[in-house]
Amino acid sequence: MTQRKPENKLDPDVQAHIGRQLRAGYVDILNQPVPDRFLELLAELDTREGEVNQASDELRQNGSR
Amino acid sequence: MSEPASRAPRDELLVHIPSLRAFAVSLSGQLDRADDLVQETLVKAWRNLGSFTEGTNMRAWLFTILRNVYISEIRRRRREVQDTDGVFSENVAVAPQQNGHMDLEDFRKALTDLPEEQREALILIGAAEFSYEEAAEISGCAVGTVKSRVNRARTALARRLNLEVGEIGIEPALRAALGPTVGSGTA
To answer: Of B13, B19, B46, which to mutate for an interface test with A (greatest number of A Cβ within 10 Å)?
Structure first.
């Protein structure tokens, strides 16, 4: 990476500090287990897809005339 | 049920939920709202799995969807709330921290008050650790635009949190608290 400073001069310590704060909040959520609502959602989407596939298969069969 | 050729989409999406949540929380600043964003993202992603090119970066693809969901939600809100001026000026009018003490809560608040596109760019680069090219693709803008948004975001945060050195110089105590520039910040 080029280390040319843009128009603003941010102290590298300051920049590193901002980076750490930013990352800390992010990682905090990143490390949380996946909430049940999303497991349920994916399961539901999976089931629904099965139904949709079935429906579109029927459609295709009926539609071929 | 037919056997999927590769990993089932359900498992594929599952892997990315933690980073989608982290992104959504960072963007919206609210856990509840963030999880609603993730939910909508997953539903959209599921419907559009066909348009995802296998072998490409699924995390970036999902982040793009979430970002777009978030942006359209903001636009909808702005339309619904006529008096947006009041809302935004309220954000801007927050007094800067005077004591130089910044904890994560101050930081979160400052992050929330950044303009949307600056916050987005900073999170993509500084937290989600995408490349500038990937971030540009996710945000639908030029690489140079991402760079300047990140710079502006950092400068604004530094100013807001009284971190800016400029002519004043940073207090020795604060500098010590920040730790070495390079190296792991063992807090």
So the answer is: B46
